[in-house]
Amino acid sequence: MSSLSILAVLLIAGVVAYFVGRIRSVKVCKGEQSTLHSRPTYHGFYLAVWTVLLAVFVLTVWSAAERPVQNYLAMKKMPASVLETSDAQKSLTMSVVDSIATGLPKLTAEEREIVRKARYGFVTPADARDVLARHGVILGSAPEPYVLAAADDLAISRALAATILPIVCFLVAAAGFLWGYTRLAPKLRARNIVESVMRWGLLAASTVAVLTTIGIVLSVLFETIHFFQMVPPQDFFFGTVWDPRFSSVGRAGGAQGQFGLLPLLWGTMFISIVALLVAVPVGLFAAIYMSEYAGPRVRTFSKPVLEILAGIPTIVYGFFALVTFGPFLRDTGAHIGLDISASSVLTAGIVMGVMIIPFVSSLSDDIMSAVPQSLREGSYGLGATQSETIKRVILPAALPGIVGAILLAASRAVGETMIVVLAAGIAANLTLNPLEPVTTITVKIVSQLTGDLEFNSPQTLVAFALGLTLFVITLGLNVYALYIVRRYREQYE
Question: How much is the pTM?
Answer without folding.
Answer: 0.68
